[in-house]
């Protein structure tokens, strides 16, 4: 056992997942795999914030229904999103009579949640927890960039916040792909200050966590069928592959990035998806399905998050980033 | 004082990032800005002639009326969700004309309407354009005072 | 007459286009944000008019010089300069008086259209 890596000896499993996403996401390469597609981004609500909240409560409710569990079977809800004070997650939790653990690590919230969920269930403290995260393009634009109707240009290195949410049930006893290890990342900042270039800011954090994981587990990159990163986008993925190979690790053949595969991207315009909903919808649909159908048997999933706010950017700060990894394996 | 900055700027990494990051298409963006910006000015000139010859408006009133019509058109296109599309294509070509100023007022007003009339719509209306008013007034007052004083001498 | 009108249109197109292209160059090379671009061009208009230069551009290109935000700065400076001839009060208020039409229109239409329209989400 390493300093940052935990092995789960009782190997809790992910028994069920549910994903919901917007129209743009549904038109992407894996769009047909989502459980639910929003007709429009308001989702029948008056504001986009309410829509984001409804999206989260929908995936939580639906994952319970889909799994055949009852609400009372769930011991805790671990959830987070991108909005200030993680209001979407907290307000969604208001609808459920379940203990709520609100977490924030920007776009790596999902793997942070899975790692925590696995810890709680593996330790025997709880038997079934839900991990749910989400984001919404229109609420993120307003919080991080400009009003929607403002005619600004999106620089080509930028990414597109995913409108979507996903939920997974982590269970001590149930059947499904198992979470066998988790590596908690540390905050890494290489000095990137361009808030439009998240991929470049986050790539070093992903590298740090991946290398820590390899060192502490003694595993090599080819131990895994697939190494999944969260939302580095096309540019960030290219950077990651480059800098990790400089450190002696090759992941070119078995790496995929959720942000890169969620849209049909034109790299001259933007680099792919981002946001807490990005890895949530991709993992809870595409990756989980491949694990379940045993097309993939060993997956390392390391979502990345940029821990900035508009205030820190305006004060000229660089962007601290983080990545948490979970290892998912079939028996 | 101790330097408590925990992050170390990795110069080699930043150089690599700026080398590998995609660049805005220089010629195309300049051409688009030129063409759209020029076109908006032509519309302004057309309105000038219309108001001057057809409605016989002249002087300061003419300039003001042209601005008002352009601002109206921009506000309408912003409301209809068209101006941001133009902006995506035109870049500075639709930001720099007075229509861009109008867009920067209308867009936040619409966006923050959901937080109410006072703290939302009205308070946030100038989050982008506020500095234009502030620096406009400050600089015009400075110019006025300088001209007033030099006029006394 | 007709040729004069056509040349004015062409001059408006070229001068207005160049001002916007210069702004685009700044955006491409310095990554300054649109909000800052607007302020810089406004101040440039004020300064150029205070130095007595922008008026020539306006006489030459008409709307090509008045429609860009630098023309708004020109208007502010011109108002202050004209006001200064009447006295200190005019020097202080002249700028904003001449810019009143633009500011009023922006506030009124901003308010009205915010009541009518809702922001739309984007797909590209």
Summed up, what is this model?
The complex is a heterotrimer of chains A (331), B (153) and C (124). Chain A has 331 residues and is α/β, with parallel strands linked by helices.
What does this structure look like?
The complex is a heterotrimer of chains A (331), B (153) and C (124). Chain A has helices at 23-26, 48-67, 87-93, 109-122, 137-144, 198-217, 233-246, 258-261, 276-292, 310-314, and strands spanning 5-7, 13-21, 36-37, 76-81, 100-102, 128-135, 160-161, 164-171, 178-183, 226-229, 255-257, 273-274, 298-306, 321-329. Chain A has 331 residues and is α/β, with parallel strands linked by helices. Chain A folds into two domains: 5-171, Stage V sporulation protein AD (Peroxisomal Thiolase, Chain A, domain 1); 178-329, Peroxisomal Thiolase, Chain A, domain 1, CATH 3.40.47.40. Chain A is globular, with a radius of gyration of 18 Å. With 153 residues, chain B is mainly α. Chain B has one domain (11-152). Chain B has eight helices and no strands. The longest helix of chain B is centred in the N-terminal third of the chain and has 29 residues, at 26-54. Mean pLDDT of chain B is 92; it is low at 1-6. Chain C is mainly alpha-helical and 124 residues long. Chain C has one domain. Chain C contains seven helices and no strands. Chain C has helices spanning 2-30, 34-50, 54-61, 63-66, 69-86, 88-98, 100-116. Chain C is globular and about 55 Å long. The model of chain C has no long low-confidence stretch (mean pLDDT 95). Chains B and C meet through helix 2, helix 3, helix 5, helix 6 and helix 8 of B and helix 1, helix 2, helix 4, helix 5 and helix 6 of C.
Which structural traits does this protein have?
heterotrimer; A: 331 residues; alpha/beta; Peroxisomal Thiolase, Chain A, domain 1; 6-stranded mixed sheet; C: 124 residues; mainly alpha
Fold blueprint:
The complex is a heterotrimer of chains A (331), B (153) and C (124).
Chain A: E1 5-7, E2 13-21, H1 23-26, E3 36-37, H2 48-67, E4 76-81, H3 87-93, E5 100-102, H4 109-122, E6 128-135, H5 137-144, E7 160-161, E8 164-171, E9 178-183, H6 198-217, E10 226-229, H7 233-246, E11 255-257, H8 258-261, E12 273-274, H9 276-292, E13 298-306, H10 310-314, E14 321-329
Parallel strand pairs in A: 2-3, 4-5, 4-6, 7-12, 10-11, 10-13
Antiparallel strand pairs in A: 1-9, 2-8, 6-8, 9-14, 13-14
Helix pairs in contact in A: 2-3, 6-7
Chain B: H1 11-20, H2 26-54, H3 59-79, H4 83-90, H5 92-95, H6 98-111, H7 117-124, H8 130-152
Helix pairs in contact in B: 2-3, 3-6, 6-7
Chain C: H1 2-30, H2 34-50, H3 54-61, H4 63-66, H5 69-86, H6 88-98, H7 100-116
